[in-house]
C-alpha cells in the first residue's frame, strides 16, 4: 500500500446507509445520500445505493460526473452557478435553487437539450444560508411553475450548516405548511419536502419529525455515524468507515519545547508549547496541506498529536505500548472536516476495502 492512505470500508458504509434508510422509512422519509465528503468516489456511492439510498446528492457537478454511470437520481446540493448551467442540466437530475435568474437559465438550457430538469426551491427558515424567505416562497414557486423545461418537484431547507440553527418541530412544520400552500394555490403535487441534513436526523430518532417531511439529505450520519444537531453518535452505526494511515519518517527523542526565540509558524500563528521534558517524537508523512489536523484522533490512545506543518505531522509516542520504528504506520479516525480534506487531497491514496 502507498501512504498516506485513506482506507474506506464499503461494507460499513452500506450498513450505515441501510440502518438510516430503514429508520427514515418508518416515517415515510427517503434518504438522499450525500457523497461530497469523499468527493463522489463511485464505489462508495454504489455502497450507499446498495444500502437503500433513493438519491445521490453532492455539492459539486464534478463529483456527479464521476457517478454518472450509477442509475440512481442525482441531486446537486449547492445552488447552481450560471457559468455551469450546461453541466447541471447534463449531469444532475435535480438541483436545489433559490435564484430565479438561475432557474430561468436552467429552463432555457433544458429546453435546448429537450430535457426536463427538476427543481427543489430552497426556503430560508432562519439559518441565513441559501433560500427565499418563507413569506415569499409561495409566490416564488408560482414563477417557477410557469417555466418550460423545468419542473418544480419540491421545497427544502438547510439548517445548522451556517447559522447553527437547530431543526425543530416548529421550523420544519413551517416548511410543510409552505408546501401545502403551494399545492393548494397552484393545483400541483410536490413529491419532495426535504427537511434538511444530518442535523434533522435526531427528530427521526425521537419520533418527532413533522408529518409531511419526506426527504433528508444525509452525509455525516452515513459516513461517520453522527447526528449533527447535538453531535451525538447514532446507535448501531460505524464511526470508522474511513481510516487514515500515515507512515513514520523520523523517530527521535527531542525536547518538547523548541530552543530559541519563538516567532510565528508557517501559517502565521504564534504557537505555544507544554514542557513535558524529553519525549519520543515521530514525524509522519502528512501535513496541513492534506488534512485538518485537529479533526484527527489516533487509534492508539496513548499517542498525542503535537502539531503539523504543511507536509509533516508530529506526534508524541512516548507513552505508547507499541515500540514504533521507521516505516511503521499510525492510524487515525477523523471528524467530517478531516475526512473532507483527506478526500480532496491528491496526495492521499484512496484504498477501497
Automatic annotation (TrEMBL):
- Establish whether keyword Isomerase is in the entry: yes
Q: Which residues form the signal peptide?
A: none
What region holds the Alanine racemase N-terminal domain? 8-222
Is the Methyltransferase keyword given for this protein? no
Which cofactors must be present for this protein to function?
A: pyridoxal 5'-phosphate
Which GO molecular-function terms appear in the entry?
alanine racemase activity; pyridoxal phosphate binding
| Family annotation (Gene3D superfamilies) | Alanine racemase
- Listed GO CC annotations: cytosol
This protein's UniProt keywords: Isomerase, Pyridoxal phosphate
**Which CDD domains does the annotation name?**
PLPDE_III_AR_like_1 (cd06815)
Q: According to the lineage, what is the superkingdom?
A: Bacteria
Mind telling me which InterPro entries this protein's record contains? Ala_racemase (IPR000821), Ala_racemase_N (IPR001608), PLP-binding_barrel (IPR029066)
Its protein name is Predicted amino acid racemase
Organism expressing this protein natively: Lutispora thermophila DSM 19022
